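Lecture 7, part 2: worked example. A protein chain together with coenzyme A.
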Amino acid sequence: MPIFLEPFSTKHITSEYCSYVLDPEVNKYSYRKFYNTSTKTIAEDAIKELNNSLLHKFAIILCGVKVHIGNISLVEYDAPIGCAELGILIFPPYWARGYGEKATRELLNFAFFEMKLNRVELGTYNPAALRMFHKAGFLLEGVRENKFPDGSLLLPEYLMGINRKHYQRGS
Ligand SMILES: CC(C)(COP(=O)(O)OP(=O)(O)OC[C@H]1O[C@@H](n2cnc3c(N)ncnc32)[C@H](O)[C@@H]1OP(=O)(O)O)[C@@H](O)C(=O)NCCC(=O)NCCS
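Predicted complex, written out as C-alpha cells:
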C-alpha cells in the first residue's frame, strides 16, 4: 500500500505512539533502552520537539486507511553546509512490508528537492536498517564499534550517507 508523510503534530502523540517508542523490540539497537523513560516523558518530549525549528519530523501514514504507522525525521545539525541526520521508526506490526524504504525515499525527495540539502547521513546499529537504507540509496561509509552506556555491548555502528548529486543520479 502506498504511504505519505504528514508533518508531525500533537494529533500523532497518542498512547499507541508512546508505547511503540518505548517498545523493547523497537529499542533493541537504540540507546533509549538505557534511559528510564515513561510514556508521559515520551509525550512531553514529543511536544517539546515541535518547537525545534531544526527538526523536520513527519508521521508516516498509510494511504486510503489513513493509519499512522511510524515516524521519520531530519535534524539539520549542520545547517550552514546543508547537512542533516535521518531517523526513522516504523511501528512493529508494519515491519518488513517495504514501508521503511518508501518513507525514506519520500524523505530524501523532501530533503534534496524541497529543503535543497546537500547531504543526509545517519548512524545505526540495526542490521535490518542497514539493508533498508542501502535499498533506499544510502552508501555505507564506515563502521565503528561503540560501547553501549552499560558497557555490556560492543556493536558495530553503521555510518551511512547520501549526497544530493548521487541521489539525483537515480537512486
Ligand atoms: C529499521 C526499520 C525502520 C525498517 O523498516 P521496515 O519497514 O521494516 O523496512 P522495509 O520493509 O522497507 O525493508 C527494506 C529491507 O530491509 C531489510 N529488512 C527489513 N526488516 C528486516 C529484518 N527484520 N531483518 C533483516 N532485514 C530486514 C530487508 O532486506 C528489506 O528488503 P527485502 O524485503 O527486499 O529483503 C524498522 O525495522 C524499525 O523501525 N526498527 C526500529 C527502529 C530503528 O532501528 N530505526 C533505524 C535507526 S535510524
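The mean pLDDT is 92. DSSP finds five helices and seven strands in the chain. Keep this in mind for problem set question 3.
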